């Protein structure tokens, strides 16, 4: 479907930002296996893992917005989000290319991004890619790991950035997978998923 956005929300329970004693932010590890299959004319726009206080899909969030935000909430604190985007279309000038991973805070514009083409990891190849997103509550280090299983070998990526989630999100956080299309389409698949909290 073109010009479409959507979200899949884990609604059984929310992530508590603080540990049981409220002495430190919760640490977590989010592991999943993703596969992105491009449409006949190319891929677009991408998908994201999102931490959000409001699980609802923003209106008019197709295309470059990836289901993360829209032109009303972009770069505001109206609907706080922290997202890891897997972008398969260069939609605006600040995008590195059509094959990058980025970290976004309350915006579609990434505060950090990296072109996976440097490592021969191709998001829209249809290959299985193992992703691991980890947050260390004490050090406030936010990490992204990617491994693409392909012939003849494996390609590995790791990125680290300091993020204080307690300054960005309220205590009740929803776990969300978001995605969108515009003029191009793609099949976004999460083939397995495991989320673990670590009470430090």
Just name the CATH architecture: Sandwich
Could you report the average pLDDT, rounded to the nearest whole number? 91
- CATH class annotation: Mainly Beta
Q: What series of H and E elements makes up the topology? A: EEEEEEEEEEE
Helicity, in percent?
Answer: under 10%
Gyration radius, in Å: 16 Å
Number of strands: 11
Largest sheet: 6 strands, antiparallel
In brief, what are we looking at here?
With 200 residues, this protein is mainly beta. It is built from no helices and 11 strands.
Report on the architecture of this protein.
- With 200 residues, the protein is an all-beta fold.
- The chain contains no helices and eleven strands.
- The protein has a single domain, classed as Jelly Rolls (Sandwich), CATH 2.60.120.
- It has a six-stranded antiparallel sheet, with no helix packed on it. A five-stranded antiparallel sheet has the order 9-8-7-2-11, with no helix packed on it.
- A hairpin with a 4-residue loop joins strand 7 and strand 8.
- 37% of the residues are buried.
- The mean pLDDT is 91.
- Keywords: Lectin.
- InterPro entries: ConA-like_dom_sf, Lectin_legB_Mn/Ca_BS, Legume_lectin_dom, Leguminous_Lectin.
- Pfam families: Lectin_legB.
